[in-house]
Specification:
The protein is mainly alpha-helical and 137 residues long. The protein is 62% helix and 6% strand. The chain folds into two domains: 35 residues, no CATH class; 74 residues.
């Protein structure tokens, strides 16, 4: 069985650039998934597809709002839990059983909604912060 030998790259291309030109290329390279400038350069010269990271900056404000919403939901959950603890600590209060029943109903409706909203916020944050697009550079 003969092994297929891969030919080493033996040809070089040497190009001189102005500092501004090099900076443009360096900036583009940094946005890619390549580890070495030579890999990036080879793919550009051979007109292969280049994968670059892309962040949609127009969504920054929305993402900030969603982060604040998540914090507010956490605060609501904490306040609700404190109210339940306080109510449970007051045994002899008249009408306590009515309040406890109302809290159970509220909890059963609020908790799933809060969990779902938190999951959605996390999903959106992941999408916006790690969105990749394939562009030909």
């Amino acid at each position: 069985m003969m092994k297929k030998t891969e030919e080493n790259r033996s040809r070089r291309i040497i190009t001189r650039l102005k500092p501004e030109e090099y900076k443009v290329i360096q900036d583009r390279f940094k946005k890619t998934m390549f580890r070495k400038m030579s890999e990036y350069s080879r793919n550009v010269l051979l007109e292969k597809t280049i994968t670059v990271t892309h962040r949609d900056q127009s969504m920054d404000e929305v993402l900030e709002e969603l982060i604040l919403l998540r914090k507010e939901l956490n605060a609501i959950g904490n306040n609700f839990n404190q109210a339940v603890r306080k109510l449970n600590s007051v045994e002899g209060m008249p009408d306590a059983h009515i309040w406890q029943a109302m809290i159970v109903v509220l909890r059963d409706k609020l908790e799933p909604a809060i969990i779902q909203i938190k999951e959605r916020v996390s999903d959106y944050a992941d999408i916006w912060s790690q969105r990749l697009s394939v562009e030909k550079v």
